[in-house]
Write a structure and sequence with these properties.
The chain is built from four helices and no strands. The chain is mainly α. The chain has one domain.
Length: 122
Amino acid sequence: MISFKLQVILLIGSILCFILLINMIRKYRIELKYSMLWFCIMFFILILSIFPSLFEIIASLMGIELPVNALFLLSIFGINLMLFSLTLVISKSTIKVKELSQEIGLLKYEVEELKRTINSGK
């Protein structure tokens, strides 16, 4: 069983993060598609903080002796999941930036060629 202090910390932390996330979505500081993972994690933490006996069930299913260790393992898994998600987003953005800069380079070349053609025709 997790301690009551940890249960309260998890409950307050998940509620505060949920409110912060909704506020950031309202102010267009984060896109909804990127916030869905955060919503899922906050909901999972909220459920586990309301029903701490779920930690014992999860720990026994995972073969872990102490429920707090299951909490740490799930936290590490959640962090790795977020890192993987962010890595995908960064990779897509990097590819898009590279393609756009190549397209800008081609457009600049075409503009310079047009300028040369116009100047040589005068």
